[in-house]
Amino acid sequence: MGLGQFGRAVALSLVREGAAVLAIDQLEERAQLVESEVDAVACADATDERALNELGLERMSCVVVAMGARARETSILTTSLLRQRGIPRIISRAANELHARVLLAVGAHEVINPELQMGQRLARNLAHPTILEQIALDENTNLVEVATPEQFIGKSMNEIDMKRRYGVSVIAIRRGGQVLPQVAGDERLARGDRLLIVGQPASVRRVASLA
After folding, report:
1. Which positions ≥6 away from 156 have C-beta within 8 Å?
2. Which stretches within 107-188 are classed as H helix?
3. What is the rounded CA–CA span in Å between residue 151 and residue 146?
4. What confidence tens digit (pLDDT) does each residue in 136-156 have?
5. How many of the other CB atoms lie within 10 Å of CB of 130?
6. Which of 66, 78, 86, 149 fits 210 for a cystine, CB–CB 3.0-4.6 Å?
7. CA distance linking residue 117 with residue 167, whole number of Å
């Protein structure tokens, strides 16, 4: 719900991933922008209970409330109405921390703040440019993809002994267009390899600093 830049990106990306998508916006011109690419489109006021009844959103496995910062009240009311209808998964976009808390209080199962998350990601990339990708699995564990440090090239995983020396585990190696899972101890690293490692944030940053 909500077909601004963020909402359109979500809808079209879901389509590319093979998901069935119903795109909804109050403005007809926004709905028309994605009409030819999604499965169905509707021009409706998400705070109108009669309109929600006609849309039959109860059949949806997930609804994304993607309204931007200028529509905070609308996103809160929409989230509440969706929860009352028993939608199994509601993901709502928040403009700030207070907005996020309110969305959770009225029924959102998950809250996202794309601007905040993108800013944090940019900051991490600037601070640690050798970390190519990073996912926080929990507060104490990160999954990251890093370039192979020069000093590791030509050495086997047993020789490097990442777990003992650095406190991280290598779960895969990205080599060219392939991913090598279940890395054997005698596997030797080559120039251009990328390591997918799991460990505490300080430990993975230590490995990244070597590259």
Report:
1. 185, 186, 187, 188, 189
2. 114-127, 157-160, 162-166
3. 14
4. 888 889 999 998 999 999 999
5. 17
6. 149
7. 27
Tens-digit pLDDT profile for residues 143-194: 999 989 999 999 999 999 999 999 999 999 999 889 998 889 999 999 999 9
CA-nearest of 155, 133, 151, 135 to 143 is: 135
Tokens 């490097």 belong to which residue?
160
pTM of the model: 0.70
d(CA 121, CA 123): 5
Longest distance between any two alpha carbons in the chain, whole Å:
67
Reading the block at residue 6, the tokens are 């963020």
Contact 204, 145 (CB under 8 A): no
Measured distance CA(129)–CA(127) in Å, rounded: 6
Task: Tell me the one-letter amino acid at 61.
Answer: S
Distance CA 83, CA 37 (A): 28
The Cα 70–Cα 204 span in angstroms is 39
